[in-house]
Design a protein that fits this description.
- The protein is built from eight helices and six strands, in the order αααααβββββαααβ.
- Strand 4 and strand 5 form a beta hairpin.
- Helix 2 packs across helix 3, helix 6 packs across helix 7 and helix 7 crosses helix 8.
Length: 255
């Protein structure tokens, strides 16, 4: 802290530094410990409350002590770039991804689990809408399928959807489809690599359903590409019925 600062600003820096990390930063001179404790608990509890609403499983898996240390590390070290309370979980994910060094006793799947829990909040508050006109009953094979704009096609190295306290999990390549349906409910489903690849090919909105499936057949060197097309056609219909696909892009609508 620059010594040239006015006294009241130095006090402010000392005050907020102690709030962030009361064990490492001394209490400002002249502030009663009892009163300082009220501020410490108020701010920490508010911050933890916003995180608990988004990461309940992570809290249960870590236990009270490890969870508190993680929240305190976030509070002490991270500098948020937004004033909005709803975006505190976003900042927490950024902290875990870019600033946090996991201790030896941290579960190896911690970041994956946190991301999995966070994505539900992201999709539930998203204001994205289709950017092109579409036909809900269009031919998904011959037309260009349009993905639900509030959708995430995810891959993890852990079966994050099965992680729970006292449950042993092993690393496993896991694909998940998450999207917000027409009733504004966020839907989660485990998918396979075939579905994940199809969704990735369709995401830019340039390929017909048939072209995307033919590319998958070529990439996989499948001995019977017709089977890929048949299975893929049924899959496209199912994705539309569930709300992951909205229909097909109307002719004349650019990418």
């Amino acid at each position: 802290m620059p010594s040239a600062l006015p006294e009241f600003q130095r006090f402010q820096f000392e005050f907020t530094a102690h709030l962030r990390d009361p064990k490492a930063q001394p209490r400002p001179a002249g502030v009663e410990a009892r009163r300082m404790k009220v501020y410490n608990e108020l701010l920490y509890n508010n911050l933890e409350g916003f995180l608990l609403a988004c990461f309940p499983v992570l809290r249960q898996v870590l236990g009270a002590g490890k969870w508190a240390r993680l929240v305190r590390a976030f509070f002490a070290a991270h500098r948020s770039r937004t004033p909005y309370f709803r975006q505190i979980p976003d900042e927490f994910i950024q902290f875990l991804q870019n600033e946090w060094t996991a201790p030896e006793d941290a579960p190896p799947y911690l970041l994956a689990l946190a991301h999995y829990e966070w994505i539900e909040l992201v999709l539930s508050v998203s204001n994205r809408s289709p950017d092109r006109a579409f036909d809900t009953a269009g031919d998904l094979m011959e037309g260009v399928p349009l993905l639900n704009p509030v959708l995430a096609n995810l891959r993890y190295d852990w079966p994050v959807q099965r992680i729970a306290p006292r449950r042993k999990v092993r690393p496993a390549e896991t694909y998940l489809l998450v999207f917000r349906d027409a009733e504004d409910a966020v839907q989660f489903s485990e998918i396979n690599a075939f579905t994940a690849r199809l969704l990735a090919l369709l995401e830019p909105g340039t390929l017909t359903g048939r072209a995307a499936l033919e590319q998958i057949a070529s990439e996989s060197r499948h001995p019977d590409p017709i089977l890929i097309l048949q299975a893929g056609s049924a899959l496209l219909d199912d994705l539309r019925a569930r709300g992951a696909l909205l229909g097909t892009v109307l002719p004349g609508e650019g990418a």
